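Deviation from plan, reported transparently: zinc ion complex.
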Amino acid sequence: MAEVDLHLHTTFSDGTLTPSELVRLCASNGVKIISVSDHDSTEGLREAEEAIHQFSDMELIPGVELSTDVPNAEVHLLGYFVDVEDANFQRVLARFREGRVERGRSMVERLNELGLGITWERVQQIADGASIGRPHIAQALVEAGYVKYPKDAFDKYIGRNGVAYVERIRVTPVDAVGILIDNGALPVLAHPTYYDDKSQQGDDSGLRTVLQELKDAGLVGMEVYYKDYTPDQVVQLKRLADDFDLVPCGGTDYHASGNPGEPEPGAAGPAMDTVVELKRLKKERAVAS
Ligand code: AMP
Ligand code: ZN
Ligand code: FE
Ligand code: FE
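Because the crystal trials were delayed, the predicted structure below was used instead.
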């Protein structure tokens, strides 16, 4: 088990554990340093911070995850040491969350057109005020008996190239890095192999182009240790991170999703050195600005 897990979701976006429940699970798994990184929301961070105070040997790195659509793929950016008091940043997040509502509603409409009888009202009930996402729709499809597990909903309908997928607000990966930099957060590329099918099969030419672009925009790290990456994938991604002088980050992207075999917090994550390096970079940027 890793002692560091820098990618975790809660009920404030599409995870199903509250921040307190998540912190307790991390504690019992022996994870010491965690980042709560909800989609387009920092609202779970306060509860996470309070919960972590009960464990003297644990520490929270405040995080957030921003998502962008690129042709046929998705690029997600994590932001570490996010400043939650930044009013401008909070306005941007609120706009992204509103976009998620419109997008969610459109995906439900498409599913309805395909003959799947789930309602937007039910999806909203499942989300219960959280930053809404496809896992909430997937849950509604599970409940209604259209699929067995949430992941099946992605495979059949709402995956990036699925029949009921709807794109989100237009933001480029470079824009997302800029938004995080403006906030003072450290931008890190999440799950790099999601970039395209080629990178999944080991051809990293497309990914290298994106990494160069993002590095020029201020990217400081990329996920190398992730959920269920194989040792081979980790070796390849570590090499890529070294080539671009990016801090090797990672975590489980835990959602308590209800999918079978979901790796628990601490099942993947970087070494403690990574946290030291992120803190050094954060300090360096704070001095520079
Ligand atoms: P959204 O933010 O609405 O685009 O939804 C993205 C979230 O959906 C991710 O953070 C994952 O939790 C989940 N997700 C994406 N792709 C899959 C998949 N193939 N199987 C299961 N969950 C997925
Ligand atoms: Zn998610
Ligand atoms: Fe993601
Ligand atoms: Fe995530």
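The mean pLDDT is 96. We consider this an acceptable substitute for the interim report.
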